[in-house]
Design brief:
Layout: H1 2-19, H2 21-24, E1 27-33, E2 43-49, E3 52-61, E4 72-78, E5 97-101, H3 111-121, E6 129-136, E7 139-148, E8 176-180, E9 188-191, E10 207-212, H4 220-237, H5 255-268, E11 278-282, E12 294-296, H6 333-337, H7 341-355, H8 361-385, H9 393-401, E13 443-444, E14 448-449, H10 478-500
Parallel strand pairs: 1-6
Antiparallel strand pairs: 1-2, 2-3, 3-4, 4-5, 5-7, 6-7, 8-10, 8-11, 9-10, 11-12, 13-14
Helix pairs in contact: 5-7, 8-10
Length: about 525
């Protein structure tokens, strides 16, 4: 009875906050759904917020984050007849596709927004965001980041629209939106002809997806063209003449965007850097044959960046993302580009310019402080909803000692289904029930390998601690989190200052050989 009373009291407090959201600076979004949500298919619903009251399609999104208590959502705005509806939300340009990002394992709730803002300030398009709170089917779900989705469009990734007839000549050269990430059967994918790098990886296969045009609209000639173009880029980058001004990589890629993407990724020390949620696009060539090069970006998925992860060397302030990690292969093109002194010099010049404004400590810290000030009036409700995000001072030290399987919860912790197979909290079976790829290796949905994909060393995990499974540290308050984040950024920038200054002098990248590896477990085959 007491538990029910306090739950009722908490909901009353939240509803009062809904009515007074203008006072705390955050809009409250209310969503009602017509059925159970899954990551496979959108269900119909209705969304109410300032400036919008109408139909939507909604589904879960993410991979490992599907096991978190706070879920991420994909939102499609819909008209009364169920068709897609383009509308602007909270001052952002009109579109039908949106995302509700859950900052569950980012206590600061700033990392994604910060990464997007820095990329925009560097002169590129990145998703615009707004901080909101969410009520889903009458239940308070905490603070969210309402974000534009990465889609083709005039106000998003502004590349040429492809039609069914664009199969040859200049028309077939663009536009295309590509991604290196997990994938599913709805994606048009191809495997890189160049092995990825990363010591300890069970596989060296890097898989590209063409996400615009979508697989159902992508014509065979278009798919053949973009696959051939990417193959050419990667093979030329690995060639003996890769640095040649006329025949080398500069003929095929937008070098400035690759320089910026390198600086942005290395500053963040993103645990998923280059290997997951890595986007590229290619626009149509101009009539005179110019343009149409491969561009790096936009950026996406930085909740495990800026010192917030315990794997992929993300907790080593002097590590490099381009060198890869053991959990999935990193495209070798980044390692190769850094072997060119001209590319390194371009990085040095650009970095020095950015440090004078966009990447100055003062400007970055000012953005974080403004963001934190907006959240301050309502962050307490978020922690009330997810109390596991904060720990007591003494508990931080104790959790650091408890590392089952290096931070990964033991099998006995996972909920059991009727067939007695251990499952993750979102219901995915831990063993024996993952979707199978062509090589008969169990994978997480989207091709994410079951082995080597999660952090197995370090962390603050205890039994049932999904936050600690990935965490490099834990905090007792929001202020402590902001302080740690700012200090981490200061230390990382200091490291980059010292090292990039030497890029055209005595610094050279550590080079890993390209070795083709495929995961094979014969004992799983029939």
């Amino acid at each position: 009875m007491n538990k029910m009373f306090y739950r009722f009291l908490f909901l009353v407090v939240v509803m009062v906050a809904v009515c007074a959201h203008g006072q705390n600076g955050l809009v409250m979004i209310s969503i009602e759904t017509s059925g159970a949500l899954s990551a496979e298919k959108k269900v119909a619903g209705r969304m109410r917020m300032d400036g919008y009251d109408g139909g939507i399609g909604i589904k879960l999104r993410g991979n490992s984050s599907l096991g978190f208590a706070q879920k991420k959502y994909t939102i499609e705005l819909r008209s009364d007849d169920g068709g897609k509806l383009a509308a602007g939300l909270l001052g952002m340009p009109a579109h039908s596709d949106w995302v509700l990002l859950a900052p569950y394992n980012d206590v600061s709730a700033v990392r994604d927004a910060l990464a997007f803002q820095l990329w925009r300030d560097m002169g590129h398009w990145a998703p615009h965001t707004r901080l909101v709170e969410l009520m889903l089917d009458g239940e308070y779900r905490g603070i969210y980041i309402l974000s534009e989705a990465i889609k083709r469009g005039r106000d998003r990734v502004d590349i040429a629209k492809m039609g069914e007839g664009d199969r040859s000549g200049r028309e077939v050269t663009g536009g295309y939106l590509l991604r290196i990430d997990t994938f599913n059967d709805d994606d048009a994918t191809f495997t890189s002809k160049v092995p990825g790098i990363g010591e300890g990886c069970l596989s060296s296969e890097v898989v590209w997806s063409c996400i615009y045009p979508k697989k159902k609209d992508l014509q065979p000639e278009q798919f053949a063209y973009i696959q051939s173009y990417v193959d050419t880029v990667e093979l030329v980058v690995q060639s003996d003449y890769f640095a040649d001004a006329d025949r080398g990589y500069a003929r095929y890629i937008d070098v400035g965007s690759f320089v910026d993407y390198f600086i942005h990724t290395e500053l963040s020390l993103n645990a998923d850097g280059y290997r997951r949620s890595a986007y590229f696009y290619k626009d149509r060539q101009d009539a005179d044959g110019r343009g149409g090069k491969l561009v790096a970006g936009p950026v996406w998925d930085y909740n495990l960046a800026y010192g917030n992860a315990n794997f992929a060397h993300a907790d080593d302030i002097e590590a490099w993302c381009f060198e890869g990690a053991s959990n999935s292969p990193t495209p070798a093109l980044w390692q190769r580009l850094l072997q060119d002194r001209a590319f390194r010099r371009a990085v040095k010049i650009r970095y020095a310019a950015l440090r004078g404004n966009v990447l100055s400590n003062e400007r970055i810290f000012s953005y974080i402080d403004r963001h934190a000030a907006v959240l301050k009036p309502c962050i307490g409700r978020h922690f009330e909803r997810y109390p596991e995000l904060l720990v007591r001072e003494g508990e931080k030290r104790e959790r650091a000692k408890v590392r089952p399987f290096g931070g990964f919860p033991p099998m006995g912790w996972f909920p059991m289904t009727g067939d007695s197979i251990p499952h993750f909290p979102d219901g995915f079976p831990m063993m024996g029930g993952f979707p199978m790829t062509g090589d008969s290796i169990p994978h997480f949905p989207g091709g994410f390998p079951m082995m080597g994909g999660f952090p197995m060393m370090g962390g603050f995990g205890g039994v049932g601690d999904m936050v600690g499974m990935f965490a490099a540290y834990r905090v007792s308050s929001y202020d402590e989190e902001i302080s740690i984040l700012k200090q981490w950024l200061a230390d990382r920038l200091s490291f980059l200052d010292r090292t990039i200054e030497r890029f055209d002098k005595d610094w050279e990248p550590r080079v890993q050989p390209l070795v083709e590896k495929k995961m094979q477990f014969p004992f799983w085959r029939e």
